[in-house]
Amino acid sequence: MPTVTDPLHPERIRELLLRLQASVSSISGREAALTRTHAAGVLAAKRHSTARREAGEAAHGARQRDLQAQSEAEHDNMVRKYDARRSWMNRAAQAAQSGLSRRVRAEKDRQVGMRQAQTMRSKEEAKELWERSRQDHREFAQGIAADFEETAAAARGAVKVVRSFQPLFSLMLRKGKFVKGEAADTSKDRETLRKESQQRLAEATEQLGSLRRNPLAGFFRFVPLTALLVVIGGAFGYMIYSAPDRAAKLAELKPMLLVALLAPIGLHLLSALLLLPSVRRMSITLQSSRNLGAAAAAVSEAKVTALGESLKREVAQQSEGLSETLRGSEEIGQEVMQSGRRKIEAQVARLPAKAEALHQRNLGYVTAWTEHTAAELDAEYAAEVAARDAEYAAGVAAADAARQQGLDALLVEWVEQVKPVHSELLGLAAQAEARFPGWDESWIGTWAPPETAERALPFGKLHVLMKQLAGGMPESAIFTLDGPAEFDIPLALGFPDRGSVMLEGDATAAAATINEIVLRVLTTHPAGRAIFTLIDPVGLGKDFAGLMHLGDYEETLIHGRIWTQTTQIEERLAEINEHIEKVIQMYLRNEYATLDEYNEQAGTVAEKQRFVVVSGFPAAFSDTASKRLLSIATSGARCGVYLLVHRDPRQQVDPALADALEKACLRLVPHNDHYRLVSMPAGADQTVLSAPPKGDLETALVHRLGQASVDSNRVEVPFSHISPPESEWWTSSTGDELRVPIGRSGAKKFQMLALGKGTRQHALIAGKTGSGKSTLFHVMITNLALHCSPDEVEFYLVDFKKGVEFKCYGSRRLPHARVVAIESDREFGLSVLQRVDDELRRRGELFRKAGVQDVAGYRKASGQPLPRTLLMIDEFQEIFTEDDSVAQSASLLLDRIVRQGRAFGIHVILGSQTLGGAYTLARATIGQMVVRIALQCNEADAYLIMDDDNPAPRLLTRPGEGIYNDNAGALAANSPFQTVWLAEDDRNAMLDRVTALAAERGRKPAAPVVFEGNAPADLDANLELAGLLAERPQSRPAEIKAWLGEPNAIKGPTEAVFGRRSGSHMLLVGQSDERVATLLEVASFSLAAGLPADGGRFVILDGSNASKRLAASLPQDVKVVGPAGVADAIGELAAELAKRSAGESDGPEIFVVIHGMQKFKKLRQEDDFLFSMDDGPSGPNPSKVLADIASEGGPLGIHIIAGVDTWNNVSRWLPRKVMAEFEMRVLFQMSANDSANLIDSPAAGSLGLHRALLYNEAHGTTETFRPYADPEGDWWAKAAEQLKAGALEATG
């Protein structure tokens, strides 16, 4: 269980209550025991004193009577002793005479016995010494035998080593044959000889080790000579037996057989000779050890024999001394007899007087003893009385002291254990009130979401009765409290282990409490960090209807709605179980015990707490739902999932589920008129539940909570967490691998994008709208641009989405960018793939010439930089939306790039909202993209981007949350992460700094190919036109280019090339007069820029007077006419055409530019104009002249550039024969039928706003392009100034 730190946590409160209960109960019980012990002690002291007094008096009287009787008996005894002594003296004198002879005989016998005993002891000592010597010799002999066994073992070991050379070596080693060992010096003691023997044995053991290491001995030890001979013989025998002619084969192989047999025999004999010195040295050493051991045994045997002889001589000497003792004792006896008789006679004369004096003295002793003992008895009795009284007083005092000591000790415990806990419990109410104020309008108005979640959440009170809790209170007045013994403490949920509650009984009361808890949870958690799943199958949501306002602000707060149906309940609980799976498998793993621990480390990527609110359980709960609820109850708290359950006790619940709920939840059951908390001890289990706010107050609070939760589902990890410091920009190398952090993985680690090693070469990204896919692309690009220089990585960026995500990389000229496409067309996307494919082929040639296999090898071999190429396509499926040549070509190119690019440092990252649908990349190609990054997506896409058994992405819930998998979607390789947030301003600032860094390091400013599909082309980007304006041509070129716009391909600007050939005319068809007029102006200006001042003429037929700006800008001869002057102008052109046809003139190029041909009625072809060859009286027919110029003017340098609004007008003004002369046709958006009429293709029917088609009938090509927009500002003025200045220089 996690450590409980919040004082309001229910486990902490329960711990305090149990401590209070145990302490008070223990102190009360021990105080009662002290009282009982004190009373028993006083009573025992009194009883003991009385018993001692009675016993003392009886004992004193008995002792006095005994003393008198003893005194009288002693006096009588003294008299009897005196009489007995007189009789004894007479008998003693007689007995002394008769006993003297006995004493003499006894003395003689004593002396003889002492001599005999001494002799016997000497024999026993000699025998014992002999046995000890024999035993010592036997032990020594056994040691010698053990040494001999070791010697034999060494010999056997040596024999095993040289077993192929028996029996000679065996006799030498085992028997000592043919060798002579060291002779033993028997003058030495046995221990010295044995030590020398053991030294020789140790030497032999060392020699045995050397012998074992000898390669010859080792070889023949494991490969006996006989085995070699058998193998050789068998081999030759097999060859002979296998031969068709065995006799001939035998004759052929006989010499070889002899050599083969003699060779090992010779080697064996040579090895024996080489081993002989070593074996002989070891044999000598072993034999020396045997000789020395035998000598030591002989020396020991000789020593024992000598000791035996010495002991025999000592015993014989002792026997001779005994005989001498017997002869001397008779003489001593006679002398003793005479001396004794004289002594006895002298003593008998003195004894009577001495006996009388002794008798009188003894009687005096008896009298004195009697008097003295009587006095002692009296003093002893007095002392016993005093001691008895003192003992009684001491007993009473000891009982009093023991009781007081016990009370003092209990008081210390009371002060140290009871009062602090009691005070802490008393203070909890104030803490709860301060941290969780009551619901009132002023507090709701000032409430703001907290930064961190509370770990305890009160929702009522517990009423504590200390006397009932502890089973009694101490009676002594010294046990005081600092507050009442009956008080209230907060009833709270505690996270994570006690964050669930289950209420039984009345549904209305339970719903009120659950509403209170829900509102408390929302007000004590950071905004959006607590979300709820509401289940109410009985009340159909009426009890929680007020919470539905939260969904108006943030739908995730309440999981969309209140769920009432069985299938809905199953689905919601399944989702919760999936969430628990995700938390366990993706976040906790083996690193964190609970989600709270993970969240502490995760910071901004902390996971939300989830609360499952159930009313009326188990109503509408199927077996499936019950099992899922069991899983939640078992594992939910660890994963931040908690239960707020109202249970209907009238309905049966599966015992296992009921048990799990009781373990997981604080269980409140009805008791009289209140609820009782089952887990709390009696005396502290009565509850008073808090009431939620009502009416307008509740509504105001819910709206306040909802407003604070808006957009709370968004998690932003700053980009600065993974970006390198500026001092480390451009320091990373991609030689071995392209590796860059893209987000946070778990609480502490970075998630790295790693491409270029093994099979990890390409990446596939899937995520629905709003999942953070675009942000992930920006993070990859920007962080790679910071880590790596343009020599390490380059980008091809294609975005098919309707947005401008990649525009910043083109507008800020990111030095790493080679192509930047925004709102790309399918054709341009194909062009990018072709460019990358060309790069793949180019690198293939470079690698082949350098003889290398990879980027690192090429860099090392050539010394030249070669960046890794990163092709990044967002919404790549757009290129496959039509089953046409573009999709087919793109599929082939992508497959080739994916399969072959890995070898050349070319990597592909594809992104899409979904991988489903009929048109997509081939699964085989997707299978090559091992790195998979899944953001929020549906279950179907989860299986598509990952493996078939890996639906983990379906559990992702917030933008930027993803799963990184570098094993083709295998479940075991899932790595959850949170993409960092990169604000647009921060990104642009870093891109500007990267561009500046490139300039600082002397890099030429990059000019990436930028395709901005959502905008018209910019004429400023036309470098060829800029070059012509800077340096004008000196002569008329053979072909003149009219630039129209930027192509949907990686190539130069779209151009219409005019030369002196048939069909060199251009027709522009579009309903937007403005766009057609702009394109006519731009085309005319570019044509003028490609000609010298005298090399061209422009005749502009303008029905709207819109060509003044163009006319003023051109240095060539320009004539602008309206509908009224068209006949004259056409007449002049007819005359010029006639001259040139006749060869009379070869003037400059003439461009007839017609703005809005439909406005010039005179140019409309009559039905019979092709059949009338007469011009008529009014001059040339303008329509006929126009037809003549179209058919004949091209080779003569007269070209028509006409703009028409619709196909209908084209068909009316230009019959098909005339229109066929316009080999170059520009089509803006129109119907598919009109497009088919103009270019035999409906392609123009699918053009967008800023798109046009250039159709070249002569070449059979159709090119989609973005027409140039009308340049803004003073571009025309500056361009005209450059054009005219260049013309003056050319003519000057």
From TrEMBL:
Looking up InterPro entries in the UniProt record yields: FtsK/SpoIIIE/SftA (IPR050206), FtsK_dom (IPR002543), P-loop_NTPase (IPR027417)
Q: What is this protein called?
A: FtsK/SpoIIIE domain-containing protein
- A single Pfam family it belongs to is FtsK_SpoIIIE
Stretches the record annotates as Disordered: 50-76, 97-124
Which keywords are on file for this protein?
ATP-binding, Membrane, Nucleotide-binding, Transmembrane, Transmembrane helix
Q: Which residues cross the membrane?
A: 219-241, 256-276
Q: Which annotated residues bind ATP?
A: 767-774
Q: From the record, what ranges are coiled-coil?
A: none
Q: Where is the FtsK domain?
A: 747-944
Query: Organism source for this protein?
Result: Luteolibacter flavescens
